[in-house]
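Contributing: when you submit paired examples, paste them exactly as shown. First protein:
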Amino acid sequence: MNNLSEENGETPDFLEPEDLEEEFIEEEPEEEEPADTIFTNGKGYVAKEEADRIFQHGFYGIRLDDGRLELEPVEILHLFERKRITVKTSAGDPIGAKDIVNGLRDTDPDLWIRYLVFRDLRSRGYAVRQGFVGGISFRVYARGERPGDATANQLIYVLREGEAISLHDLDMVTETASAARKKLVFGLVDQNGEVNYYRVAQATLQNRSGDTN
């Protein structure tokens, strides 16, 4: 059986104890020219010459064999909002965040909801990577850990307020987190776009006959 618990308001309960004293807000880097990003097939691509600069501003993207940096849609939206990149189609036409969200609506209808959680996590100073199969939206790294040098210690499952999750799906994601030996956290986005966090844990109940379920 699964148990969902919430701690106090703005500070999510998956923060490590040493982080509870003061929330870390990501500092804006010194202003510099935004990097050109080509948006195609649902991903963004930064040229080799600019890839290191964008990656080092917060471990964005994945380096490809040809040296380019491949960005996920939530990373594009975040970098675009922070004015770190400009986005164009492969034909060279400029596009904005709304164009990206609307363009991916059929294949990724929850992109904006996931982005709100991604942005909130990044504002708290966490390195965040794309999730994997089973509905896990993001992998979150401990403070000071670098993707590639360490493994994520928490998994984020994103939900919209009022959206139901079946017991089957709940069991599936808790089993996925348990098998990976990572903490599972639900990021719940309310109607105002505010994000609240719930830690999900497995519990075993014992019935009167002594059997466990």
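Second protein:
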Amino acid sequence: MNSKKKQRCSYPPVPGNLNYDRWLGSAPEQPYMEGRVHPQNDRGGRPGWITTEDFGLGMITNWGAHHIDIAQWAMGQELGGPLTVEAQAEFMTDDVWTVHRTYHVEMMFPNEVKVILDDKFENGILFEGSEGTTFCTRGPTKVTASDPNTPVGGASALRASNGKILAPLGADAKRFPSSKDHYANWIDSILANTDPVAPVSQSARSLETCAAAWIAMKLKRKLTWDAAKEEFVGDAEANGFRSRKARKPEYDINLVMKKAGLA
């Protein structure tokens, strides 16, 4: 008798309210599991797709996109990016989820500005300058249980090492557009036919920086990034991570743009 019996996996049926083939889009073919998409009866939980590399790259693009766009905004790099990226990370294995767990990323930007990302840091952005430090984050509470570290001990979501840093700005100070609500800002921009606080061109650049960090995590070596050309310098292996073949021709972005007369 052969003791090495084949194991058969049983997958749940696709819910009637979900077109799973359309949902997969360009991503690789794979069986449906609720943990890969979004819980049917829990809209408040974190969806599984952001922790599966075929659909999302994990916290580096999830919270990373929120923080990196503000960091690049502050550096005047809204349409730019890092010069070099190096990173280390541990990735999930033997699990439905395949993204990174722990990570440490160091990026050098123009004007010798260094940006460090680490899963052990408090969730937010710490600015360090010649006059002291300023920290800011979205708020003192977690949106979901799997969110990164939040302020502890009742610490404020906005604080500085020197109170003068948070003093009211003068009349001639540079001011950025403000938004109290992402959704309202998006709708208002549509009605007014103006850019929202975070235009898609700037959002794409911040996500490029996050993705470059993820590629450095994968390769575990220092990479040089050319933001103007949107490619790694002299590194075919790293550039190979920038895109993947679409599962079906109808989801190939180049073909879609060509059919729409955009390419």
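If you have annotations for the second protein, write them as plain sentences, like these:
The longest helix spans residues 200-219.
Residues 215 and 241 are 7 Å apart (CA to CA).
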